[in-house]
Amino acid sequence: MSTGETLNFKPSSAVLLISCPDKLGIMAETFTFLARHNGNVLQADNFGDPDQNVFLMRVEWDLQRFDIDMRDFPAHFARLAERFQMQWRVALSSYRPRIAVLASRQDHCLADLLHRHQIGELACEVPLVVSNHPEAQRLAEFYGVEFHHVPMEKDRKAGAENTILDLMRAHNIDFIVLARFMQVLSNGFIQHYPNRIINIHHSFLPAFVGAKPYHRAFERGVKLVGATAHYVTEVLDEGPIIEQDTVRVSHRDTLDVLLQKGRDLEKVVLSRAVRWQVENRILLYGNKTTVFD
Amino acid sequence: MSTGETLNFKPSSAVLLISCPDKLGIMAETFTFLARHNGNVLQADNFGDPDQNVFLMRVEWDLQRFDIDMRDFPAHFARLAERFQMQWRVALSSYRPRIAVLASRQDHCLADLLHRHQIGELACEVPLVVSNHPEAQRLAEFYGVEFHHVPMEKDRKAGAENTILDLMRAHNIDFIVLARFMQVLSNGFIQHYPNRIINIHHSFLPAFVGAKPYHRAFERGVKLVGATAHYVTEVLDEGPIIEQDTVRVSHRDTLDVLLQKGRDLEKVVLSRAVRWQVENRILLYGNKTTVFD
Amino acid sequence: MSTGETLNFKPSSAVLLISCPDKLGIMAETFTFLARHNGNVLQADNFGDPDQNVFLMRVEWDLQRFDIDMRDFPAHFARLAERFQMQWRVALSSYRPRIAVLASRQDHCLADLLHRHQIGELACEVPLVVSNHPEAQRLAEFYGVEFHHVPMEKDRKAGAENTILDLMRAHNIDFIVLARFMQVLSNGFIQHYPNRIINIHHSFLPAFVGAKPYHRAFERGVKLVGATAHYVTEVLDEGPIIEQDTVRVSHRDTLDVLLQKGRDLEKVVLSRAVRWQVENRILLYGNKTTVFD
Amino acid sequence: MSTGETLNFKPSSAVLLISCPDKLGIMAETFTFLARHNGNVLQADNFGDPDQNVFLMRVEWDLQRFDIDMRDFPAHFARLAERFQMQWRVALSSYRPRIAVLASRQDHCLADLLHRHQIGELACEVPLVVSNHPEAQRLAEFYGVEFHHVPMEKDRKAGAENTILDLMRAHNIDFIVLARFMQVLSNGFIQHYPNRIINIHHSFLPAFVGAKPYHRAFERGVKLVGATAHYVTEVLDEGPIIEQDTVRVSHRDTLDVLLQKGRDLEKVVLSRAVRWQVENRILLYGNKTTVFD
Fold this sequence. Notes:
The structure is a homotetramer of 293-residue chains.
Chain A: H1 4-7, E1 13-20, H2 26-36, E2 41-49, E3 54-62, H3 73-83, E4 87-92, E5 98-103, H4 108-118, E6 125-131, H5 137-142, E7 146-149, H6 157-170, E8 175-179, H7 187-190, E9 197-201, H8 213-220, E10 224-231, E11 241-248, H9 255-278, E12 282-285, E13 288-291
Parallel strand pairs in A: 5-6, 5-8, 6-7, 8-9
Antiparallel strand pairs in A: 1-3, 1-4, 2-3, 9-10, 10-11, 12-13
Helix pairs in contact in A: 4-9
């Protein structure tokens, strides 16, 4: 059976993510740098947007014979990075990012993520589940994850958010997944995790921004319902879209059936976004994402 | 090879479309009426919306041994229809509805519809193509359809619409298909064909209502683009949705590729809506459609 | 939140499933019978295959004012049923069918079904999980379901099957779901549950019948992988198909990714088939299914 | 409106396709070679299969400032190519490949391809249509394409194939599209265009290899039908798959409806394969394709 370690990453590899202005020689120099140090490339992907003069690249290479100690990588790579004005970061496949899941009463996305994690689909750690309802506790504990119940009462939201932030820090959380967390987070909170909070919105954005999208889709008489995974930014449901999908509905489908079909979408769409985040496959430019899958 | 006559209709059948308040006995009485007159049911479909207390039904039956002359059908059916306060109409498979296609410069939907009609996918007549650009003339004539070029200049729109209305009347048009007709029709025009004008909008409504939806989809960074066939009403892009579909796009897809993928969607979505209209499969309730396919 | 009771069934309704030769008056008589006894129809669906002269119908009606005690229904309906040579059965929405899940080491379908059941998507009881591996015990017990570990060793299969049959009988199981149960059941076993065993095959049947379909799909270089839910019959993977779906794969997808994408399909496809079975929406004719959803 | 020239290619670019054993430095050397000669990379894609030790790459670069005359490219690139044992070829965006379409009586794929070509979706020339039925002549001529009627009578197939081969040579055909050409070509014919004949098979291969796949799909009671574009090899329907797609069907769909839904699939699937071929996006390894789109 597959495990997260072997699913998409070689046992010992590194991923370099680059964003810079387009210029002659970026790839030549980068691949030459890697080859010179015996870094055999396992997967390379790139994208250039000529209108915005931006070049994005993801390179994954084998560390087995790479002759730079990865702790010294920044020092070795600095000159090249400066020359091309790169924004860059490097990630090791041996490091499993630490994610926290925020949930509310509906637990289908939470249950789905925890099971995927257990069977090795997600190469990350899930040390923490927080919910504003106590029901998810049993589920979190079944999967061996620490659970905290943090109520989000209207006039005590700021305090609740601080509690959650403290928990995040205490668990060294790398990014946050809102698994049908039905609360709007404050800008103050979001700024602590810029482009590191992934939300699942239960509609095909930009259709049905905001509350009760399935109800409004039902009212409008659409023939498909959708779900959208996106980064959370200060403007509600306007952050960069990571993944979307739709499913056919008919006039026969009651609102309950829409909700049920939607749940299937939400689980799949959110889990793809989380996996791509975990595997360092997402690069941002402007308000868009590039997914190198 | 299939022909429109045999595709979905028996050589000689009738379709009854009913809309009425839900009440005990509607189906019992209707099917008993048909059976008593030797009307063997070929297909029956129904839908009840308990919230709106509406009952909708489509029945298609064989006329071969049906003992009512269809010219007298209204007289025979009247008592039943009144009792249940039915809004109803009946259509004969022997009658091929007459549709007009309005097009602009982009002719992919027009070419698609004309070819489908030619190979027998659409059991209708297409006696008329109108465009505000002259380019479609060759295509229409290749398929043996009368073509009229009616420019839609900004300050002469009312006159142009009147010209089109005259053409519609002269050709006894039953309903109108806007095959990427890039003009907004006036309410005055629309009221002549209530729920008998089908438009293809090149987005997943209600996302990207209005102009240049692919451009805006591209800007927003969506991961799917869509197309929507709907009835034209007085509020732009707000009419009852007949059919929708989506297709996956990636960050690699330029605006040109979005347009091209969108064209494939538009052709398929519009042609489905037209076929359902031709085959009397669409019933309206509120601002929604019920498609009995 | 939705519960199984309200999802698709009215609190108190009955479903009648009919299969008979096509003949004038079946619907007239059936709906008249129901109306005469104050049975308000909630949903009715039918299908006739003229080539095979078969007529299939599913009617669901409200029992609230229905004036026949459902224990006496067969006696009341007998004359009508005989006249039209109907094969028929009736099911009450108040009865929740009892299903057993057979699983092996891979537990994604099992976990998915148990969670769906818990949140009310499936209007059935799940009193029993059996596996030839002990790992699923924790999961079954988390959801409050009795678990039995029955090893299926090569030379002791007959005994194992008898053990399972005894468990089925002891729990009054109505139908069996093979949730990635990687064992071939004997004809003797199958004959105890004719068309009452649902299997999920991890390919788009009839492509890749038999073992290791993902491996063979990977070898063949397909661009989509599929999953198929079907009834188990004596010929492996040849039973009537209930539901299928596919998902796109690319040359980049390793076998592990195919397996992972396939798991998502398997869960969704199997759960749809189980829900339709639970809600009495599936009718068989020949080796095909009619799904009245 | 988009034209083929601008759709996916810069006005003046070149595409290099490489297949070789995986080895350290391939990308470093190749990109360095291009950069040294002022070849700004527009798009680069690659794929390595570790099991088969094969590395595939597609690079497209801007010729505007590239300082090698493309007639001399082979001489300049030879040393690098030899060192890495590359199989390679280069294509200029200014060259529009010449394709011939072989059709039979059903002309939906032919009409679709010709219209796409006309509106600029396909950056190729279509100088020739051949059919074993005369009906397509009007269509070919409408789009300004030379047409030849070559009957394929059972005992005169060899002669007919020779006639077609002569036509191909006379028109300098680069590759052949079988647009529902219902004849099996001999191995002798195929060997003249190895991996340069694209066929559309009207099923989801490997399901329903051979004749009448929709009829067999209908008999089997599948819930989706599919279409597959593949290269023609000596074994019927066993060549490398380029593209596939499926569409949902229901028990209500007659065989005629399956055929009609299938036609929509065939058109889209075949046109994607042709576009990828035209744009030099397909690389073969073993019996599989890599599509760099």
